[in-house]
Model the fold of this input.
Amino acid sequence: MDKLIISGGKPLQGTVAISGMKNAALPILFACALNKEPCILHNVPAVKDIETTVGILSEMGVTIRYLSPTSLEINGKDFKPCTSPNTLVRRIRASSYLMGVELGLSGQTRIAFPGGCDFDGGRPLDLHMKGFEAMGAEMRTYHDGYTGEAPDGLFGAKIYLNKASVGATVNLMLAATLTPGHTVISNAAREPHIVSLARFLNECGANILNAGTSEIQIEGVASLHGCTYRIPPDMIEAGTYMAIAAATGGPITLTGVYPEHLQATIDKLCEMGAHITANNALETVTVSAGDQLTAIELETQPYPGFPTDMQPQFAALMAVAKGTSIIRENIINGRFAYLEQLKRTGVKTIGEAKDTACIEGVERLTAANMTATDLRGGAAMVMVALMAEGISEIRNVHLIDRGYDDIEGKLSALGADIIRRSEDAPSAPAGSSPLMTSSLPTP
Ligand code: UD1
Done:
């Protein structure tokens, strides 16, 4: 396993190209298993979760060929339902999408419990199950995972989701695409990745209407055909680099982004005092810090509200903002485990409850060694390490690699002093004065 070594306190500026959206590419890759013809996907991010998904689908008979590091040709002709490899399924949350694909294709599913970021509140799949059951499947939990059976195949149904769950909306869209009849998903998630999945499936001949609204209509079709599709930019990777610009000075220009997906993040950064210009036509956003960040109140909400996946990165900003900030986490229970690690750098909380944190800004942070607790919490640790004078180390980088393509390469190009080493490599004393990276041990 690797660690990142960061010598912080340097102003960052320049241009960073944003990769394709992980949470759009994942369901689209699984959707390719519904298709007996090859599809070509461009702008697929080179992140660990994609690698794991490629591994799962390949073991299940899907042929995947890399045309470039970010373009893939995927042929689902020989996909064999109910043959998923347990070890890989347990690594990512998105492997739950196999249930929708398998049930839609064969009326049967069997998968190990999916993994992904492990938050204190757990991550139930009950809404997925209720949806499949409304479509005629009998779902069961066994000691190690889930099984489901619809001996006569699924049928179209009206499904109401208690919560606007991204995963349940995706899974039910996948299940309904080839299912005879009309399916309606009410209180559906409206995230850009839902719209992207619908666009991809429609390009392949599916009949999905109103994705991006809270009532999605799906008319099942008999089969899909191949297509070429470009994955949209990653709004969370973009938001993270915007927050990094506000933390380290900027200006940093992000290229290949859709500013309309970033509105909630842009609004909150402006409220904190950052300067932002967005250009829809050029697909760029430029962020610089302004004089002094100020405290804000933040509440996570389903899209188009402020994304839960940007919450830890904003905690890092609040750590140095003037005044006391408040975060209310409404989407994912127990998403504050990362705060304990941030505190090692001097981040000050003056109150924490299960779903609320109050952060009092301090003048400066000090370098420290931290261990990533989850993907976005890990990104927040990178941010505080970039702000703190001296050398910090972040372990468990594999969690950050799940969702950030070449994070050290992109940050280095912006002027950061950051390198990756094996966790076994000797550590510099935490907080020691900035060290030339060339004097650190080589891999
Ligand atoms: C997706 C994203 C994740 C993001 C989250 C919220 C992917 C691969 N992951 O996760 O990065 O943080 O959306 O934007 O796209 N819930 C239930 N029952 C269910 C399903 C969900 O109670 O059956 C609850 C969850 O516990 C959570 C909330 O609903 O509290 C939102 O979950 P959901 O939108 O499903 O998130 P994921 O799809 O897991």
Remarks:
- Residues 433-443 have pLDDT under 50 and may be disordered.
- The radius of gyration is 22 Å.
- The pocket of uridine-diphosphate-N-acetylglucosamine is lined by residues 23, 26, 93-94, 123-128, 163, 165-168, 189, 308-309, 331-333 (CB under 6 Å).
- The first helix runs from residue 22 to 31.
